[in-house]
């Protein structure tokens, strides 16, 4: 029986996307506070803030890799869930939800065990020194205890949004971040736990978010619920979910690879000050990428539902709208970076040397930032319409085929440390335009 509640095939496409995107953006903003607040507090620790922040940056590839597996089972399933719900097959949609839960749970246990057992060699492989490991090791070992909570809250929250409850999905991260913000200063400064206190606050807050998500999806308010009887894996269904989740997995996985290469190149050509600066710049990028990420994420359930319902003109309208909105926002964000780079770096550090050098690197890194919008829109359009192969290719193309080789080659060609930061804008331009133009010619024009 087809459920007509929250039917994305009716009403203004633009309003539907905005209605999804606004709470999603707010939710993602609050989600980001989990890590951003940690970095701000840690960066301002007396005497040790710079080195502690460097250590935190060394842990990023592991954290991003956990997010990659979350995308593989969460985002991939959500895309298939939206298409199936648009077709009116609610039993299959609930089975997709149940399968996602099982895969997230199993992978969280495996990731925790492997990362915890091999914590030290992993961090040294990712660019740690003996000094920075004193901060990276304790942080990661505590953070890993929240792997199950993190993957459940983030991976299953998309199934709340895909049912047309973005406000509830927003509360998932608002509640968790509020707990994190309150506990951070208590553990870091009150109990004098430093980076270990930041990690512990994050684990507790992720646990609270996970309880919220699971309670909603098993409760009466959800249209489609998480039921024990639906928690069975099927090879065909799992294959489809993995196919649609691979683009997000590859994107996050290659982000982890890029950070590993960057950390090692920065240590080689510049030293730990530059690793700290890259940690700060990554934080700024995450903040400024939130709206475009929210726009593309908000469009996905609307595009997927209408594609499943055969409403191709509405799908095309949604793609056009997200493209215009995304490019417009990223142009404004680039202007802001050019106007106040020192202020942005200063949020995370009191060091005059870090602020001065960081502002210079920030302007290099964000040059032509608006090209990133084309990557987001093209990627989300492929993924929403079930075009897994194209989405996977362009995820690999921008990061693995462009950024990593440039990060290795440009410093060796005489550009030194600047070459590491220059690799990102070059990849945004080439990869973003290639992804969007291909999507426009091969998907949009054929709808």
End-to-end span in angstroms?
27 Å
Mean pLDDT, rounded to whole units?
Answer: 89
Number of structurally distinct domains: 1
Silhouette: globular
Q: What proportion of the residues form beta strands (DSSP E)?
A: under 5%
| Major sheet details | none
Radius of gyration: 21 Å
Low-confidence stretches: 1-5
Order of helices and strands: HHHHHHHHHHHHHHHH
Helicity, as a percent range: over 70%
* Total beta-strand segments: 0
Count the helices. How many? 16
User: By helix and strand content, what is the structural category?
Assistant: mainly alpha
Polypeptide structure, described:
The protein is mainly alpha-helical and 447 residues long. The protein has one domain. The chain contains 16 helices and no strands. The two termini are 27 Å apart.
List keywords for this structure.
16 helices; 447 residues; single chain; mainly alpha; disordered N terminus
Summarize the structure in short.
Helix content is 83%, strand content 0%. It has 447 residues and is mostly helical. The chain has one domain (13-446).
Tell me the layout of helices and strands:
Layout: H1 13-43, H2 49-87, H3 90-117, H4 119-125, H5 130-143, H6 147-161, H7 166-190, H8 195-217, H9 235-269, H10 272-308, H11 312-339, H12 341-346, H13 352-365, H14 371-384, H15 388-415, H16 417-442
């Amino acid at each position: 029986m087809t459920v007509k509640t929250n039917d994305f095939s009716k009403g203004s496409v633009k309003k539907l996307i905005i209605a999804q995107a606004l709470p999603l953006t707010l939710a993602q903003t609050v989600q980001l506070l989990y890590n951003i607040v940690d970095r701000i507090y840690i960066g301002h620790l007396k005497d040790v803030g710079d080195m502690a922040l460097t250590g935190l940056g060394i842990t990023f590839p592991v954290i991003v890799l956990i997010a990659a597996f979350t995308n593989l089972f969460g985002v991939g399933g959500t895309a298939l869930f939206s298409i199936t719900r648009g077709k009116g097959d609610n039993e299959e949609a609930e089975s997709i939800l149940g399968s996602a839960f099982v895969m997230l749970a199993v992978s969280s246990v495996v990731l925790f065990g492997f990362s915890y057992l091999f914590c030290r060699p992993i961090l040294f492989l990712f660019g740690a020194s003996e000094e920075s490991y004193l901060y990276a090791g304790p942080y990661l070992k505590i953070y890993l205890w929240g792997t199950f909570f993190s993957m459940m809250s983030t991976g299953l929250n998309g199934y709340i949004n895909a049912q047309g409850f973005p406000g509830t999905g927003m509360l998932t991260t608002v509640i968790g971040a509020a707990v994190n913000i309150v506990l951070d200063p208590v553990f870091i400064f009150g109990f004098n736990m430093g980076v270990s206190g930041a990690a512990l606050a994050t684990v507790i807050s992720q646990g609270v978010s996970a309880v919220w998500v699971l309670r909603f999806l098993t409760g009466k308010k959800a249209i489609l619920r998480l039921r024990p009887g639906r928690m069975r894996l099927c090879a065909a269904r799992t294959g489809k979910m993995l196919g649609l989740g691979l683009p997000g997995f590859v994107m996050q996985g290659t982000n982890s690879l890029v950070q590993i290469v960057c950390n090692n190149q920065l240590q080689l050509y510049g030293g730990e000050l530059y690793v700290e600066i890259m940690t700060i710049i990554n934080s700024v990028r995450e903040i400024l990428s939130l709206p475009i990420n929210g726009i593309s994420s908000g469009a996905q359930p609307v595009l997927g539902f209408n594609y499943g319902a055969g409403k191709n003109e509405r799908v095309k309208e949604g793609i056009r709208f997200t493209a215009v909105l995304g490019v417009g926002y990223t142009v404004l964000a680039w202007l802001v970076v050019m106007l106040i780079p020192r202020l942005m770096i200063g949020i995370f550090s009191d060091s005059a040397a870090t602020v001065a050098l960081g502002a210079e690197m920030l302007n290099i890194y964000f040059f032509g930032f608006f090209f990133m919008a084309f990557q987001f829109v093209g990627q989300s359009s492929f993924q929403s319409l079930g075009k897994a192969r194209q989405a996977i290719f362009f995820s690999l193309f921008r990061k693995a085929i462009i950024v990593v080789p440039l990060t290795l080659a440009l410093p060796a060609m005489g550009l030194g440390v600047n070459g590491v930061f220059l690799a990102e804008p070059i990849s945004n331009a080439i990869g973003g335009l290639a992804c969007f133009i291909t999507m426009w010619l091969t998907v949009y024009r054929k709808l």
